[in-house]
Design a protein that fits this description.
Layout: H1 2-27, H2 33-36, H3 40-47, H4 62-75, H5 79-103, H6 108-121, H7 131-151, H8 155-169, H9 173-193, H10 200-220, H11 225-245, H12 251-254, H13 259-276, H14 285-306, H15 315-329, H16 334-358, E1 374-375, E2 387-388, H17 396-412, E3 417-421, H18 426-430, H19 456-469, E4 474-478, H20 485-490, E5 495-500, E6 505-511
Parallel strand pairs: 3-4
Antiparallel strand pairs: 1-2, 4-6, 5-6
Length: about 525
């Protein structure tokens, strides 16, 4: 027993260090500014007293902003602190996943390798904070706890599950909402059918703690509840509607694009029914398979709706482990099947590691020459360790030259500036409020309401309030690919003089601004 515990402790230590370091390494390997830098400035802006919903329009991700603010507060403002956030989450996820596999009675050797494979494909596909990853992985931990509760109820897990789903939902509304509904259905069914309703009060306690956190943060941040409702609850469905209308379900996007996930999911479901068809007692197993089956389908649906790069291949090691556990219950020749599962899992991990981690496909960096990357310390020492290369410029020196020019312009300006850019680090590296009304800029209406959206006036009111209350007399846009963005927004409210300062930066000097059109 002592020898077994010793091996388990060593496994935890190795997995913790490895999962942290692999995410830290690949998170520094190039960047796609709008995604890679999405929470750098907003995390710091919270430390300056600027908050989501109140000071900038938020479609998703306030959880990440507040957590990143905590990391900056504790570790200092730097690229390393930024990656420490996601690297620690990747490590935590991996360790919990390893624990989960052990609790499913999968042998230590196999549990270790499935968790090891998971760590490679989990947060590492992004490396830097990303809303879909946070939402999915907080939900995944809650799902693990739900499954373990099906076998042996734990009061702490009952309280923690609602809090984790709360963190997930405020990372991004979907897929969190899908996974909350699925898990809640399983929890309620199990509580009722297994006569465990006395544990319901602990779930309610977790919900109350979540609501308390919500209202305390809202109160301390001075966030108007109506602003929260408009930005986070009412506006996002208006974006999704257009995506659903244009979505076509095909054999390719439902099955072929996720073929290796289905390669594990289909045998898992088949083997489960084969193993349990004649059993009167299942010890929670039907709930487990049902929960993971609909979790996988929900995440595939989410990928199709968002139309982002695929990040859910981390499911393969989990499904491999569940399939492994089902084979343990069968009367088949186990060793040959274990070997087949292991080989296919290793193959899938290697394939997607090379594509999404090494080639950085998630951040659109597949075609860049990483040997040309430059240490971003040249911009500011706070960006040390970031190897700068983006999909937009084959010669990163040219891009960095313009970024540095823009930084110096903002630093030296005597005007009250508002800065709108996807290079979202100027507030953090200059220790200066930039008053941006959005976290990132996307021209198609995904980052803020476009002119035809019914919530456009709400966004414009937030913008005008910031301009007038902060006496903004210059708006700077950096690498915004719609040059007339400011003119379209403010021409009816302000007098605007536009000056192109460098290849990236356009200055908009504004005067005579008024609240109403």
């Amino acid at each position: 027993m002592a020898k077994k515990n010793y091996k388990t402790i060593l496994a935890y230590i190795f997995l913790g260090f490895f999962s942290f370091l692999i995410n830290f390494y690949y998170g520094s390997r190039g960047l796609f500014p709008i995604d890679s830098l999405g929470h750098f400035d907003t995390g710091y802006r919270i430390l300056l007293g600027e908050f989501p919903f109140k000071d900038y329009w938020v479609v998703s991700g306030p959880t990440i902003d507040y957590i990143q603010a905590l990391f900056f507060y504790l570790l200092g403002v730097s690229w390393s602190s930024y990656l420490a956030h996601t690297s620690l989450l990747n490590a935590l996820l991996t360790l919990i996943t390893y624990y989960f596999f052990l609790e499913l009675k999968i042998k230590n050797f196999y549990s270790f390798f499935y968790a090891f494979f998971f760590s490679i494909l989990a947060y590492t596909s992004s490396g830097t904070p990303f809303v879909d990853h946070h939402a999915t992985f907080f939900s995944l931990i809650a799902i693990y706890m739900t499954i373990l509760n099906l076998k042996n109820y734990n009061k702490f897990f009952c309280i923690a599950i609602p809090i984790l789903f709360f963190l997930a939902f405020f990372s991004k509304q979907v897929p969190s909402a899908y996974l909350i509904i699925i898990s809640l259905s399983v929890i309620l069914a199990h509580l009722w059918l297994e006569k465990k309703t006395n544990f319901f009060k602990y779930y309610i306690f977790g919900v109350l703690i979540s609501l308390l956190i919500f209202f305390i943060i809202g109160y301390l941040s001075n966030i108007n509840f109506n602003d929260f409702l408009i930005q986070y609850i009412y506006y996002p469905p208006s974006i999704v509607t257009n995506r659903i209308d244009g979505l076509a379900f095909t054999f390719k996007n439902l099955f072929l694009d996720f073929k290796l996930i289905h390669l594990f999911l289909i045998p898992l479901v088949f083997l489960f029914f084969l193993n349990h068809s004649n059993k009167s007692s299942h010890n929670g197993d039907p709930y487990i398979i049902c929960l993971f089956f609909f979790t996988v389908l929900s995440l595939i649906f989410h990928q199709l709706i968002t139309q982002n790069q695929v990040f859910i291949f981390f499911l393969i090691p989990i499904l491999g482990a569940l399939l492994h556990a089902e084979i343990e219950k069968s009367k088949s020749k186990k060793k040959i099947y274990f070997l087949i599962i292991f080989i296919f899992t290793a193959y899938a991990v290697c394939k997607y590691h090379l594509r999404f981690n090494d080639s950085r496909k998630f951040h659109e960096l597949v075609n860049v020459d990483f040997s040309k990357s430059i240490d971003a310390e040249i911009i500011d020492e706070k960006l040390k360790h970031l190897k700068w290369i983006t999909p937009f410029e084959k010669n990163p020196q040219k891009e960095l030259k313009e970024v540095i020019k823009s930084k110096n312009y903002i630093k030296q300006s005597k005007n009250n500036l508002m800065v709108i850019t996807n290079y979202s680090f100027f507030s953090a590296i200059l220790d200066k409020k930039i008053h941006s009304p959005i976290r990132w800029y996307i021209s198609n209406g995904n980052s803020h309401p476009s002119l035809e959206n019914k919530y456009y006036l709400s966004y414009k009111n937030l913008l005008m309030k910031k301009i007038i209350s902060n006496n903004i007399n210059e708006i700077v846009t950096i690498d915004i690919y719609k040059d007339d963005y400011i003119d379209d927004l403010l021409s009816s409210n302000c007098s605007i003089k536009k000056i192109k300062v460098n290849k990236m930066l356009i200055s908009h000097l504004i005067t005579n601004c008024k609240d109403k059109d």
